[in-house]
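Q: What changes when flavin-adenine dinucleotide is included in the input?
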Amino acid sequence: MKKFEDPILVVVDHVGDLENGYVLTPPSEQLLTAARKLTDGQIYAVALNPSPQLDRLAAYGADYVFVPDLGGRSPRVAGVVADAATACINELPEAAALLTVSNYRGREVASHLATLMDAGSAVDVTRLSVREGKLVAGKSVLAGAWETIFAVRRGTPVIALRPSAFEAEPVEVPAEAKRIDVEVNFREASTAVRVVSSDAREGEGPSLTEASVVVCGGRGTNGDFSLVNQLADALGGAVGATRVAADEGWVDRAIQIGQTGETIAPSLYIGLGVSGAVHHTCGIQGAGTVVAVCDDPDAPIFEMCDFGVVGDMNQIVPQALEDLR
Ligand SMILES: Cc1cc2nc3c(=O)[nH]c(=O)nc-3n(C[C@H](O)[C@H](O)[C@H](O)COP(=O)(O)OP(=O)(O)OC[C@H]3O[C@@H](n4cnc5c(N)ncnc54)[C@H](O)[C@@H]3O)c2cc1C
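A: The predicted holo structure follows.
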């Protein structure tokens, strides 16, 4: 693959605060890695806090870090981020692409940016390459029934990449990432929305959309998620659920995976008591290895999983836990 020569702009996320320090998120490390695979040019990160983790950004290949002045505005507001990224991209003569994380905010940011830049955009992308000088993206559509490959032909492509679709790889010899402070002109519409309050969700471990391992419980748990939680804990993963589990009130709706829930792309997905209905499996199309434990040998999950165990999860999971411990 002949790479681009032009730079790529990557909108990165951090967690933390000014007092305790900001830490680059794993999906941002994956974005920087993806950008390096697409261009021999320079990688410009756009950081949305006043004190970004420059050494870590450099470790994953950022040559420059734009620090737009948000003037106290929240980076949770997509319009604010889009205005900030537009100000940064205006600092560059040319850019081959602009990448964001495909989460709720990232997808909204991508659509704002594409409109502002009069460019083509694609979200929920899981594959990227350069073909004949064009950025070619891939993703599954229509509830996972089709895998599509397409080129973004208008303007600077704005791409939202699914978390975990790329593995983060640090550069061999990181250079220093240079900080560039940027002034931003905010549109009136962007400042019309402001964050009034936010509460951190309780619970430890990685978030569902960012975890590299997800253990998902379905109706087969019969409402008891203790084995699902234990397996997720043992593997350092996150817990997910089918819609049935959420509808029954066994788990919070926020961890529902599928067409009307979250789309995830972990390296490893383990379904426990999940039948594999298409409304669910469309949310795991980007998963690396899919493992299923289900007592129905005719369940559709066995048609798409890499490893399947036909049996009662209440017998199989404790054995797996014993081995892991
Ligand atoms: C418009 C629309 C949108 C939808 N969106 C979503 C969505 O976003 N996400 C989603 O998940 N669903 C969604 N659904 C629902 C979806 O179609 C399925 O009904 C749902 O995914 C099934 O969940 P399940 O696999 O937990 O339950 P089931 O289909 O009932 O499967 C449970 C499986 O567990 C097995 N089992 C039972 N006991 C055990 C045991 N002890 N050990 C091992 N296996 C056991 C059973 O044999 C069965 O195969 C949507 C449906 C519609 C119509």
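Observations recorded in class: The longest strand covers residues 134-141.
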